[in-house]
Amino acid sequence: MSELHTPQAGDDHAPDLDVVGLLMRQHGDIRNLFDEVEQSKGDERRDAFHRLVRLLAVHETAEEEVVHPFARRAFEGGEQVVEDRLAEERAAKETLSALDDLDTDDPEFLPKLRALRTDVQEHARAEERYEFTHIRRSTDVTNLATMAKAVKAAEAMAPTRPHPGVESAAANVALGPVAALMDRTKDAVRKAMKNG
Amino acid sequence: MTFNPLEQRGIPLDRQLRSWRELNVPPIDPDRCDPYTRCRIITMNGIEVEAIMFSHQLARNTVDPEVKRQLARTRYIEAQQQKVVNWLLPGVSSVLETTIAYEQVAVDLTGWVARMEPDPYLKQAYEFGVLEDFDHLYRYANLYEMIEHRKAESIVDNLTEVMPGRPTRFHHRDPVDNVRDPYDKDTTNPLSKLHALTIMSAEQQTMNFYMNVGPQYMEPIARQLYQEIGLIEEEHVTHYESLVDPGETWWEQLVNHEYNECYLYYSFMEQESDPKVKAIWELHLNMELEHLHIACDLMRRHDGREPQEVLAPELPNVLTFEPNKQYLRHLLDTQMDLTTLGAGYVREAHERFEKMQEQIHGGEEPPSDRVMAEHDEMFGREYRVQSEGEHPDPAMREK
């Protein structure tokens, strides 16, 4: 494997003026974290998995707060497209919570993680093909940039790199439970949308 | 090699039709498959597309309605084979991911063929072309990281290196300089005929793919890069198709097509790691054996010749997907600055080449250079996979 860092959320100098481009790169970040979890062991895997859970939570929260409400109104049939995506998200959340109850070294962990990965990947492509294309088509650059700003505000809530020296789960515990993270993300997103 | 397709009988044609249920194959898992399984799928799709289009052209040049009906029957089965093969690719893959896999095919298929090709003139044609596919892989890999934040090594899995080849901007030659000299059908090694048909078909499929999927992207740099590389695929098809002797009759060409399909399905069946995919290669081989017999009968009837006169006495050594890293490094070290002049190769930028370059670039940077500049703005570096060390050409090392 090459020595390059896997690019992760916010880890580039893109101007992020387009919410769709930004979310597509986040979909890649999520896949990268799945790779990291699958390829690591012990504490490293535990740490990578916690970062994955947090990025998924933040990413989905941002989509639910910013993109889905816009898509519902923006185009004919948007309501149904969003309903389909939300159903996929609910199913993924259930698998995720079952996974969260397991230790990352449990023999059941990897097969369940792979099933989740498949669901998440199908969901992400469905968003890109059936929702995002309509968003780009039905709004202007100002609105795309405002939404991008809100998603960036959410992204800042989920550090995706391991903290140097604290590869244990302790660091993630210190950041609080996922539900609280989602609440904080919602607040951050709403604030950014208001100021946008 | 004991397998001789001419002596085997396959599944009778009237038992080859498949129902919707049988056509509905489960796709491979893009995150867990053997990258060379995906390469074999992409190759066989290109081979089946060529089989279908060749048969259509033959039918359009055929007067006898009975022969037209015979061609239509085999062609319908080939159309089903193409559906099964290409539908092994998963819907969750993005266009760019599939593109990177196409370029991995171009690099490792052409690389292997170049290594095995007995005729020095034909070998040079493959060596020349592979350094261009190699550069396309590098450009698309950088675009992929920009759009999806993913590394191409998650697709090519360290089997193929990713770094500059002959720079894409120099691939734009005057069209007349893309036409090669053909092999001589009566004296060439039968293996050379199979190689030429295989690489021509693969490049043609790549051309068709880029010309159709390129505009699906919204990012301006992606749209433009597909246009630029799509035009180079046009050059590559010209380059490879001109290697085939145009003196082969239609029926002889048909036999060569069917024989090549047998050869490739047999080769891929022998090396396939995915059991479900292997079963498809085996089934399709058994179908192709019958298509070959039908083609042989048509050739005997219309040309009054025995197919054995134009085919290999036995099936050649199996065509293999495997890493070609050292071979490519040798070419990077020795053939970077080649271009074509007439049907040959030169190292200097001649007048016709310079004129074409001037006109097509119009004094601006081509998309293949701009994609690197935009990637650098975003990440402050390039994307490469150099598993075997520094680039062999010092001028091509990352600054």
Q: What topology does this entry show?
A:
The complex is a heterodimer of chains A (196) and B (399).
Chain A lengths: L18 H21 L2 H33 L3 H23 L8 H29 L3 H15 L14 H5 L3 H18 L1
Chain B lengths: L19 H4 L11 H26 L4 H22 L8 H22 L3 H29 L4 H4 L33 H24 L6 H22 L8 H22 L3 H29 L21 H10 L4 E3 L2 E3 L4 H11 L5 H13 L20
Antiparallel strand pairs in B: 1-2
Helix pairs in contact in B: 2-3, 2-4, 2-7, 2-9, 3-10, 4-5, 4-7, 5-8, 5-13, 7-8, 7-9, 8-13, 9-10
Organism (chain A): Streptomyces galbus
Protein name (chain A): Hemerythrin domain-containing protein
InterPro entries (chain B): Ferritin-like_SF
Question: Could you describe the 3D structure shown?
Answer:
The complex is a heterodimer of chains A (196) and B (399). Chain A is mainly alpha-helical. Chain A has one domain (19-195). Chain A contains seven helices and no strands. Chain B is mostly helical. Chain B has one domain (5-396). In chain B, 60% of the residues lie in helices and 2% in strands. A two-stranded antiparallel ribbon of chain B has the order 1-2. In chain B, a hairpin with a 2-residue loop joins β1 (339-341) and β2. In chain B, α2 crosses α7. The termini of chain B are far apart. Chains A and B meet through α1 and α4 of A and α5 and α13 of B. Chain B: Residues 166-187, 358-399 are annotated as: Disordered. Chain B: This is Ferritin-like domain-containing protein. Chain B: It comes from Streptomyces galbus.
